[in-house]
Amino acid sequence: MTRVILGVSGASGAMLARACAQDLAHRQILFDLVISHAARRTFETECTPCALEEMQKLAARIHEVEDIGAGIASGSHAISGMIVAPCSMRTLAAIAHGFDDNLLTRAASVQLKERRPLVLLAREAPLTLAHLRNMTLVTEMGAIVMPPVPAFYLNPPSLEAAVNQIAARAIDLLRLGPGRAEAWVP
Fold first, then answer.
1. Is residue 184 situated within a structural domain?
2. Is the pTM here over 0.90, yes or no?
3. In 10 A of CB 121, how many CB atoms?
4. Is 51 annotated as a binding residue?
5. How many domains does one find in the chain?
6. Position 71 in a domain
7. 18 among the known binding-site residues?
8. Is 10 annotated as a binding residue?
9. 8 by DSSP, 3-state: which?
10. Burial 2-19 (b: 16+ CB within 10 A, else e)
11. Is 12 annotated as a binding residue?
C-alpha cells in the first residue's frame, strides 16, 4: 500500500494539515505524521481542543520531531512522497539549505535526495527576498512550492471547502493516482 509523510510545521494554517490528513485517510493512503513543537501550539490556537488528537488518530505512525533516527529519516524507507502543510518559512529555509536539524526537515531532505515528490504549502505573506530565494532553491532541488491559495474560480461556499480543495490539490501533486481535486471547467 502507498505510504507518504505528512509534516506539520508551526505556520498559521493548522486546518490545512487536518484537511490533508482527512483526505489521505479518505483515499486510503497510509501516512506517517511528524509535528513540530510550534505546530502543536498553532493547533491549540487555531483549532478545537481535540483537533490535533483527531488528526493523529488518522496517521499510520506518529514520529516525534526529535527522533532523527526514525525510519523516515532514511532513503531506504519505502515512502512515496511528502507534504508539509503548513510549511513555515523557517522549515522552508532549513530544507532549502540542508539543515536537517529535526525529523521533519530531514525527512523532507530525504525526499529530495531520492527524487520523490515533496510538496510544501508555504505560509507567509508578504514574502521577503529571503523567502523567495529559499523557494527558488527548493524548487531547483525538485520540491513543489504550493502556497495555499484558494481556487476562487470554483466559488467555494465556505472556508472549509476552500481548505479541502487546497489539500486535495496538494495530495494530487504527489501523483499517486487519479486526481481528486475539483477542476475548473470552462
1. no
2. yes
3. 26
4. no
5. 1
6. yes
7. no
8. yes
9. strand
10. bbbbbbbbbbebbbbbbb
11. yes
169 is in an annotated binding site: yes
11 annotated ligand binder: yes
Sign of CA dihedral 63, 78, 179, 85: positive
181 labelled as ligand-binding? Answer: no
Residue 52, in any domain of the structure? yes
Q: Which range of residues forms the domain containing residue 107?
A: 3-172
41 is in an annotated binding site: no
> CA–CA separation, 70 vs 15, rounded Å?
26
180 is in an annotated binding site: no
Q: Using one digit for the tens of pLDDT, what is the confidence trace for 6-41?
A: 999 999 999 999 999 999 999 999 999 999 999 999
Which CATH number goes with the domain that contains 69? 3.40.50.1950
Q: What angle do CA 180, 138, 3 make, to 5 degrees?
A: 40
Q: What is the pLDDT of residues 107-116, one digit of tens each?
A: 999 999 999 9
The amino acid at 109: S
